[in-house]
Design brief:
2 domains; six-stranded mixed β-sheet; 2-enoyl-CoA Hydratase, Chain A, domain 1; about 15% strand; about 260 residues; alpha/beta; 9 helices
C-alpha cells in the first residue's frame, strides 16, 4: 500500500489502496514508518505525503475487526503514535496534499505534517459517534487549539465534516485549492523548500514544536531561538546566505548540517 519515490532532494510517499480509501491497518502503518525512515536515510530535503484515488485516508481499516477482541490500545499506542512521531520529527520540511476523506488516523497523519494543503473536496472532522467511539490520533488537541472548546465538541457531538475551505478558514490547515491543484501546489512548495536552507527550516520546526507542546513563554522561546541561531552560524548555508545578500545575488543552499 505504501509507495516511496525519491527525485533529487524530494521524497514522495503515497498511500495507495484506493479501493479502501487508503484506510490503514497495522502492517500499513509499519510500512509507512519504514518509508519515512528510508527517506531520512536518503538525506532528502523535503517530503510530500498524499493519498491515491478518491481520498487521502479514511482512517483505520476495520474490515474484519471483531470489536469484542479488538486491541485498540495496541493499535493506537503501538502503531499510530510511533508513526505520527516519526512524521513530526522528520529532519526536513514535510508537506501533505489532502483530498476526500481525511478522518481518524488519516487526520492524525495531517496533524503530524508541517504544512497541509487541502482540496476543496476534503472532508475533515470526527465521524466516530457512528462507531460509539471517540476522536483519536491527536484530533482533540488540534481542534481545541484552533477551534476552541465549543466548536470542538460541536463537531464531535454532531459528526459534521468540514469541507477543505471550512477547515482552512477556521485555521486548521494552511491553504485550500481546487481538487486538481492541491497536489501540484504541495509538490511545488516541497521543491522550493528543498532548495532552501533546510537546517534553518528544521530549527524553526523544532522551535514551533517546543512552543506548542511545552507551552514555553517568550523568554524561554527567545533563548531557544538564540541557541538555534548560534548553531546555524556554523553551517555553509548561513555563510552562503550572508555572502549572497552582500553580493546582491540569489543564494544557493546545500542543506548542510552544523
Amino acid at each position: 500500500m505504501i509507495e516511496l519515490t525519491i527525485q533529487g532532494d524530494v521524497a514522495e510517499v503515497v498511500l495507495n489502496a484506493p479501493e479502501r480509501l487508503n484506510a490503514l491497518g497495522p502492517a500499513d502503518l509499519d510500512a509507512l514508518g519504514d518509508a519515512y525512515a528510508e527517506a531520512e536515510r536518503a538525506g532528502v530535503r523535503a517530503l510530500v505525503l498524499r493519498g491515491a484515488g478518491r481520498a487521502f485516508c479514511a482512517g483505520r481499516d476495520i474490515s474484519g475487526v471483531d470489536p469484542r477482541a479488538d486491541n485498540v490500545l495496541g493499535y493506537l499506542e503501538g502503531r499510530v503514535e510511533p508513526v505520527m512521531r516519526r512524521i513530526a520529527d522528520f529532519p526536513a520540511p514535510t508537506f501533505a496534499a489532502a483530498h476526500g476523506a481525511c478522518l481518524g488516523v488519516g487526520l492524525g497523519l495531517l496533524i503530524a505534517t508541517d504544512v497541509v494543503y487541502v482540496a476543496e473536496s476534503a472532508k475533515i472532522g470526527s465521524p466516530f459517534k457512528n462507531l460509539g467511539a471517540t476522536l483519536d490520533s491527536g484530533g482533540h488537541a488540534l481542534f481545541l487549539e484552533r477551534l476552541g472548546a465549543h466548536r470542538t465538541l460541536d463537531l464531535i457531538y454532531s459528526g459534521r465534516l468540514l469541507t477543505g475551505a471550512e477547515a482552512v478558514s477556521l485555521g486548521l490547515f494552511s491553504r485550500v485549492f481546487a481538487d486538481d491543484a492541491a497536489l501540484e501546489a504541495a509538490r511545488a512548495a516541497a521543491a522550493q523548500a528543498a532548495s532552501g536552507p533546510t537546517q534553518a527550516f528544521v530549527a524553526s520546526k523544532r522551535l514551533v514544536a517546543s512552543l506548542r507542546d511545552e507551552r514555553v513563554g517568550l523568554w524561554r522561546s527567545m533563548s531557544d531561538e538564540n541557541r538555534a541561531q548560534a548553531a546555524l552560524c556554523d553551517t555553509d548555508d548561513y555563510r552562503e546566505g550572508f555572502a549572497a545578500f552582500q553580493q546582491k545575488r540569489m543564494p544557493v543552499f546545500a542543506g548542510d548540517r552544523p
